[in-house]
Inverse folding.
């Protein structure tokens, strides 16, 4: 729909805000139910909720993918996934409807509705998050769902919370996190994983420096209720310019953090951790490196989930550039081949 269109400066600046991108000119299947049963210790009822097995991977899988050339949701970016008993929603920043988070619907995580529909707007967030909502993370509660949304009102960014009993209708819960003093009021790209002991981990991009990509680091905050957050790791968990975190559990224990590595190149990498705080060196994810067959593209904002049929799928932002301008932006998909 926007192929070949040169975005104006306003759209360009907003795109940078939600992707963390600096333009070059400026700068065999396994049964997921078995794996879930093996690794999740007996405990609170939330361990049996639908979403749990989707966010757990065997450590030896999810490191090699093949692009699905037929899947491209144009004019969207920064995907996230809401998993409910009633179905799934692929949450998206909609490039044509700035100000809210849109969603595609699916019953299986494979086939999706054709047109994104608005899920939440800045007004739903009580107006406290600014004029635009550009990134979103899902918080799985004991009795419902929450969203952490990034509100953008330059030069400030903040995270606000919404809650829902059904994943359809959302209620404002106020400002959730503004970062630490080191973040200087500029935080972005939230993603949340519930720790196995019940508290929540919020991974986010903080300290954006003199501009997007100028000094960004992945930070960590924690919460006992999924609404109010405290800083846990304030000075960066990975090297500067590794951005766009997405955490999943590993079978048998530990956390894998998918991320963009580095943002200027637009490559997808992964790093593992025993505790979700101290991570190993990143490794590039095979098949999620656009330099192989899609030179000139940048792939960012990876989301990786384990389907009930055993397949592993990744959704991510694809940015196609040429002639000094963005040619198209959309969300792509790739299937694990390991």
């Amino acid at each position: 729909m926007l192929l070949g269109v040169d975005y104006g400066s306003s759209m360009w600046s907003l795109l940078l805000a939600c992707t963390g991108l600096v333009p070059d000119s400026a700068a065999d299947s396994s049964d997921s139910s078995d794996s879930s049963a093996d690794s999740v210790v007996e405990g609170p009822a939330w361990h049996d909720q639908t979403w749990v097995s989707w966010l757990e991977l065997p450590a030896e899988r999810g490191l090699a993918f093949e692009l699905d050339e037929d899947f491209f949701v144009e004019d969207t970016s920064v995907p996230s996934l809401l998993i409910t008993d009633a179905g799934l929603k692929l949450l998206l920043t909609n490039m044509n409807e700035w100000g809210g988070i849109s969603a595609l619907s699916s019953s299986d995580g494979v086939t999706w509705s054709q047109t994104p529909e608005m899920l939440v707007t800045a007004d739903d967030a009580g107006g406290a998050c600014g004029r635009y909502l550009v990134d979103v993370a899902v918080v799985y509660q004991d009795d419902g769902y929450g969203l952490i949304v990034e509100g953008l009102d330059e030069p400030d960014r903040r995270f606000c919370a919404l809650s829902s009993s059904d994943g359809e209708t959302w209620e404002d819960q106020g400002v959730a996190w503004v970062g630490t003093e080191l973040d200087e009021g500029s935080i972005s790209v939230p993603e949340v994983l519930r720790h196995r002991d019940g508290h929540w981990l919020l991974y986010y991009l903080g300290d954006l420096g003199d501009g997007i990509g100028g000094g960004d680091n992945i930070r960590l905050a924690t919460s006992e209720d999924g609404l109010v957050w405290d800083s846990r790791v304030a000075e960066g968990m990975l090297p500067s310019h590794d951005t766009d975190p997405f955490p999943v559990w590993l079978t048998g224990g530990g956390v894998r953090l998918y991320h963009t590595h580095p943002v200027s190149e637009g490559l997808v990498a992964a790093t593992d951790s025993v505790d979700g705080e101290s991570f190993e060196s990143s490794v590039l994810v095979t098949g999620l490196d656009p330099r192989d067959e899609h030179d000139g593209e940048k792939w960012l904002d990876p989301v990786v989930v384990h389907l009930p049929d055993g397949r592993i799928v990744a959704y991510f932002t694809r940015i196609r550039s040429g002639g000094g301008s963005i040619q198209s932006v959309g969300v792509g998909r790739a299937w694990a081949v390991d």
Observations:
- The radius of gyration is 18 Å.
